[in-house]
Amino acid sequence: MLLVHGLLNASWWLLPLALRLRKQGFATELFDYSSVWEGPELALPRLRRRLLEQPSDALVGHSLGGLIALSALQQAEHPRVQRVVCLGSPLLGSAAARTLASRRWAKPMLGRSAALLQQGIPHWAGAAAVGVVAGDLPRGLGRLFARFDDTSDGTVAVAETRLPGLADHCTVRASHSGLVVSPDVARQTAHFLRHGRFAASSERTNQPAVV
Predict the structure, then answer these.
(1) Cβ(125)–Cβ(166) under 8 Å?
(2) What is the Cα–Cα distance from 191 to 205, expressed in whole angstroms?
(3) 3-state DSSP helix/strand/coil percent for the chain, to nearest 5?
């Protein structure tokens, strides 16, 4: 399994999630790229090359990482990749990113990932089953740049994660950053990777909010 980080992060950001998934029996590796300086233009061919040289049966992406993962598979199918889990990924495009892009002083924060974050992808029709875990704890820097009238994780609205063509979707009590350290997220991710669906709410263990 290959884990892909999000904007303004590095691969080590996903270590807590990687360790939890390893305890559940998954072999995990981290994919690193520069979200600002490289962006999708360079990250996508590198990820596709990595999947060819070191095949993986699953991808897990946080935020922008989910968009990178699905975009790579859209450009060139990798039959070994059977399942993808996106954590708080604005698959339909990010209102916060669009606001940032409209402000000259803030636009550099998005770097070369600006277009993908603003536009997202229209739908998913690939061979891999895709599941999304969204957070519903509205604490995050995104609130400084966008107004969320509906449920959000403080950076990404839950509605922005509901991409047509998903195999399953669930929400957990976590903020955008908290998704990568939430035990509930790790359990739901493991469940989807094993079964192609998330655990029903009655099967989930109540967890404290993760910021």
Answers:
(1) no
(2) 13
(3) 40, 15, 45
Q: What confidence tens digit (pLDDT) does each residue in 60-87 have?
A: 999 999 999 999 999 887 889 999 999 9
How does pLDDT run across 156-184, given as a tens digit for each residue?
A: 999 999 999 999 999 999 999 999 999 99
- With 0-12 / 13-18 / 19 or more C-beta atoms within 10 angstroms meaning exposed / middle / buried, residue 16 is middle
Task: Kindly give, in sequence order, each residue whose CB lies less than 8 Å from that of residue 99, ignoring residues fewer than 6 positions away.
Answer: 145, 146
> What pLDDT sits at residue 139?
84
This prediction's pTM = 0.92
Q: Dihedral sign, CA of 161, 162, 164, 167?
A: positive
What single-letter amino acid sits at 70?
Answer: L
Structural domains in the chain, CATH included, are 2-200 (3.40.50.1820)
Compute how many other C-beta atoms are within 10 angstroms of the C-beta atom of residue 45.
13
Instruction: Collapse the DSSP code of 7 into the 3-class scheme (helix H, G, I; strand E, B; otherwise coil) and give the result.
Output: coil
What ranges in 14-150 are assigned the alpha helix state H? 15-23, 39-53, 64-75, 95-101, 114-119
